[in-house]
Amino acid sequence: MPADDVAALDLWDLTPPPIPPRSRLFCLPPVGIGTSAVESLTGYIARLATTHGVLVRQLVEAEILPLLGRAYLLSPEHTGRSSSFWQESETRALNGTGTLARDLVRVVETLTRRDDLRWLTLRPWAEVVPVKGLLRRQRAWCPACYEEWRQTDAVLYDPLLWTLELVTVCPRHRCRLQQTCPHPDCRRPLSLLRPRSQPGFCSACGRWLGRAEEDRSGGELTDEELQAQRWVGEALGELLAGAPRLSAAPTRARLAQVVAVYVEEMADGNVTRLARELGINMHTVAQWRWGATLPSLELLLQACYRLGTTPWHVLTDDLERLIGSERPPLPLPHLVDVPRRPRSPRRAFDMAAMRSALEAVLARDEQPPPPMRQVAKRLGRSHGELIHHLPALCHAISARYLADRQQQGAEKKRERCAEVRQAAVQLHQQGIYPSACRIASLISQPGFIRDPVAIAERKEVLRELGWQT
Q1: pLDDT (tens digit, 9 = 90+) per residue, 63-84?
Q2: DSSP labels for 2-28?
Q3: Domain coordinates of the chain in residue numbers?
Q4: DSSP structure string for 36-93
Q5: What percent of the chain has pLDDT over 70?
Q6: What CATH fold (topology level) applies to the domain 250-324?
Q7: Is the pLDDT of residue 329 over 80?
Q8: Whose CA is closest to 232, among 297, 183, 173?
């Protein structure tokens, strides 16, 4: 080989190039971070499963749950039942402010090697927004959005805004969010995350959920409802869009300080006056002022609407700028407030009538005796209310029900012990040793053979038959 070629070979760098760390799952980019249409974490997990070509159940139970550190969410191996992760209360919390959302973000970020999935939840607002009334229990969607995205080959996904309970209208298409499958032979409400979830499709029947914008089968919106929902969508969308820009998460102390400043600047220190202008109970506003409680998202929106501001400015603006800036006047009387959930009216408790009703239940001596919760349901009162006012009668009804249940349990055990004895005698007559396994195969409840009563019965019958125990 010529000397020049040998010299050229000496210049080659044969060091292997550095290989960046690989992620366990695809490093799938989330949709809409920094905008009001940011993706939800539950929707991201469903989209991640679709990208891998597997069911959500397979992705969650094989990859995510083992790293989550919550053993109670795993499916018991000996029963084969569905994991408790799929319960409605658990899946709803995945987009919320709690520790389950925090832990799930940590695990999915580890598996995908991303660092921006916290913005797919409401975790940035955990210190200032209570859980109650925050997230809806079931999945909601805008059929017109799905249809538009499919027609334009855009990414199908579920925005975080759709998971908020107070948002009932799509701010883009001004139509109601749907919560049940539109197909007549399905019509099921859908959980936020199911083993077969897929954005744009029903997790029960697997069919398409979108429809053209012109099809308003959900009903027309009134002008008042549209106006209120437009403001609610914009105010909450501002919170979701601004979360990545937060230098520090807002705290309860900050919110209490804002309320205190509003009381001083707008009402001359008079809490009652400010509460009257906000349309909120004076004691509630006073508790906010001292940091004793947090306003629900619904009440926070109502207060901001009447003050001519938004939750984003209340929670993030400098206090001098917030109070000193020019604010529009309080809404005129004809303007609609943030819609409130209907509350059941309180009913007076008729002590004499309820006492007579409970005494009649005891006197009837029903068979089997009803439990106390069933009695409360018959009377149209809550269980706790009756116990609070008439504890002695309630305990008597419960004690009679418990005694009957214990008597029935004892009777069933006697019947099953008779089965154990009969099976043991049958095996003995065939010249076969009456082992526990053989007896279990002959009785109606095989698992009963492990009950201490059954074990004692088997030992006794073996002694009577002359077998050694």
Answers
A1: 999 998 887 777 554 344 556 7
A2: -HHHHHHHHH---SPPPPPPPPSS--P
A3: 23-243, 250-324, 361-465
A4: TTPBPHHHHHHHHHHHHTS-HHHHIIIIIHHHHT-GGGSPPTTT-PPPGGGSHHHHHH
A5: 87
A6: 434 Repressor (Amino-terminal Domain) (1.10.260)
A7: no
A8: 297
